[in-house]
Amino acid sequence: MQPPQERTFYHYKLLRKIKYGPWVNRVYILLGFAAWMAALWADGFIGLTYGGLALLVLFWIHYVIPRSLFVIDRYHYRKRWGFQFRLPWIGFLPYEKQYVGFRYWIKVLLYITLIGSLIIGVMSIWLPMGFTLQFLFWHIWFLGPRWYATIVALSISDDKLIKLGVQEFSIYKA
């Protein structure tokens, strides 16, 4: 007979939950649609191509930056982080059931924001204005919900863990 194995259960105290209602998703989609229409109006079908390419390149950039950071930090991300395609969480983010340290979340978010902006700034020298504006818009569009929730979470002074839900950003006490 084998001895019973003990399991470890972590009980975190919920400090705050930031919900993104259906109206946020509608506004989010409407902003994306407005960007496509503005690109179509300004540059014609080439503008739509700019928007599509900017989306794909930024999606790749927003994957490469955190993955590089994880490799440098020797952080095991394979079962913790992955691609999310549910509004408003689009991109390479923690999985729904995973807790992430708030300091590490901010570190990843700052790197994505700053290095992504730097890449856009450097590429803007050679790219047409419409393409550069599409890059800037989609960069802000991807990061907007993340930064909003992060700024709200800064007001809580405890050691924090965050967890992304389907349409929520939960902050827990570590």
From TrEMBL:
Top-level taxon of the source organism: Bacteria
Keyword Transmembrane on entry: yes
Keywords of the record: Membrane, Transmembrane, Transmembrane helix
Transmembrane stretches, start-end: 23-42, 48-70, 108-129, 135-156
Protein name, per record: Uncharacterized protein
Source organism: Paenibacillus agilis
